Amino acid sequence: MATTIRTRNGFVIVITLIISIMLMLVPLPDYARFFRPEWVVMTLIYWAMALPHRVSIGVAWFTGFIMDITMGGVLGVMAFSYALAIYLIARFHLQLRQYPLWQQALTIFSVVLLVEFVDVVATRATLHWESWMPVLTSTLLWPVMYAILRKIRRTFQVT
């Protein structure tokens, strides 16, 4: 007998992605703009780990495409980097879910670093110390982001 997965409250996933996109668009002062965490990547990673049957490479690519348009970057760069990041998360989601939060944060470090690296290579920008700041802030904020999104998932019973 085939097993079916019942899905519920998918709008919550969409709303969290929209909020994370809006957080990326909030203007910051010049001294703080380099410290902006990768809200969208962290949100995609959480949902890909928690519900890989709902959020996978296609959702990541589409979200990255929306980010490319919204941020005015080179079309397809964020789409590719988000899809690549979520491919890696989806490939190892069962292992990642078993890790304690500090080890997951190290994974976040690696994945966000990959996203930043793809952006630097694709746009032929030079790698400066500012490129490391979103990686570090995303890593440090991962436990908080994880707790918030897990609470949202459990409150709205997203499956």
UniProtKB/TrEMBL annotation:
<comment type="function">
    <text>Involved in formation of the rod shape of the cell. May also contribute to regulation of formation of penicillin-binding proteins.</text>
</comment>
<dbReference type="InterPro" id="IPR026034">
    <property type="entry name" value="MreD_proteobac"/>
</dbReference>
<comment type="similarity">
    <text>Belongs to the MreD family.</text>
</comment>
<feature type="transmembrane region" description="Helical">
    <location>
        <begin position="69"/>
        <end position="89"/>
    </location>
</feature>
<feature type="transmembrane region" description="Helical">
    <location>
        <begin position="12"/>
        <end position="32"/>
    </location>
</feature>
<keyword id="KW-1003">Cell membrane</keyword>
<dbReference type="InterPro" id="IPR007227">
    <property type="entry name" value="Cell_shape_determining_MreD"/>
</dbReference>
<feature type="transmembrane region" description="Helical">
    <location>
        <begin position="44"/>
        <end position="63"/>
    </location>
</feature>
<keyword id="KW-0997">Cell inner membrane</keyword>
<feature type="transmembrane region" description="Helical">
    <location>
        <begin position="131"/>
        <end position="149"/>
    </location>
</feature>
<dbReference type="Pfam" id="PF04093">
    <property type="entry name" value="MreD"/>
</dbReference>
<keyword id="KW-0472">Membrane</keyword>
<protein>
    <recommendedName>
        <fullName>Rod shape-determining protein MreD</fullName>
    </recommendedName>
</protein>
<keyword id="KW-0133">Cell shape</keyword>
<keyword id="KW-0812">Transmembrane</keyword>
<keyword id="KW-1133">Transmembrane helix</keyword>
